[in-house]
Amino acid sequence: MPAPKKKPSSVRTSLRFEPPTLEEAIFAAQGLTDNVDDQVEIAARLMGLPEADVRAAIPKMAPVRPRLAVRPPAQARFAPSRPPVVVERRAPRVLIR
């Protein structure tokens, strides 16, 4: 196993941790589950806050879920001037050596 490379002393590396805001944590929790109790637990753990503080803020934020328009399934459309296209699967060729 090769030895890890050392960084030159002139290079300074810093790591900064910023916990999410309450709104960001609740939004993320709402995206993961619909159960309010699970949302409280997820948001509290993301922020490092007690669950009671988060539980009070969740009802204030309405669940933001995009509503997908329900479309009917695709139907075959045939133009009277063109014949339909038929796609068939071909068996793979087997090479014998």
Layout of SSEs?
Layout: H1 22-32, H2 36-47, H3 51-57
Keywords:
3 helices, 97 residues, mainly alpha, 31% helix
Helix content: 25-40%
What profile does the largest beta sheet have?
none
Radius of gyration: 28 Å
Low-confidence stretches: none
> What is the number of beta strands?
0
Q: Based on Cα principal axes, name the global outline.
A: flat
Mean pLDDT: 79
- Tell me the span between the first and last alpha carbons: 42 Å
Our estimate of the beta-strand percent is under 5%
With helices defined by DSSP (H or I, 4 residues minimum), what is the helix count?
A: 3
Structural class: mainly alpha
**Helix and strand succession?**
HHH
What does this protein structure show overall?
This protein has 97 residues and is mainly α. It has a domain at 22-57. Helix content is 31%, strand content 0%. It has 3 helices and no strands. The model has no long low-confidence stretch (mean pLDDT 79).
Provide a brief overview of the structure:
31% of the residues lie in helices and 0% in strands.
